[in-house]
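Fold it.
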Amino acid sequence: GIPIHYHVMVSFDLFQEIIDILGGVEVTVDTAFTDYAYPIENMENNRCGRTEEEIKKMEEEGKSDLEIYFCRYEEIVFNQGTQTMDGETALKFVRSRHGNNNEGTDFARSRRQQKIITAIKNKSLSIQTLVNPAKLKNRIPTDTVFNFCGDDRARTGDLLRDRQTL
């Protein structure tokens, strides 16, 4: 494997905000897919109107979480082709774990994450963003976790400007 020496960690909210600040990112979806079990934020404890007894009975019958807790999930669809994704759509694209058409694997999810990272890099290096880099710079440091510091952190700007590095 390839060693990973450094990382930058951002919250889901900041991830979405970065993409929205950039005006969305252009991504090519290679394989269309539908995820019928994408989790809805803050619904993880919702019993979907069922009593404890109903839930227990359904679990004993071997019902899936999707059947028991239907209200916790939404269906998301990604069509094949190039499209501009806003922050919310891009987050769903990179987080989806249950897509059909072989898009429900960790490898597929990893490929989608790489596509979005590349799209963010390309858009952030576009002339529109380079003319006004403050729109990103002013927001990122407050929510960002780096596992490197000092000179390495200072060189990050140089790395981000070098399209061949990412």
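The longest helix spans residues 106-124.
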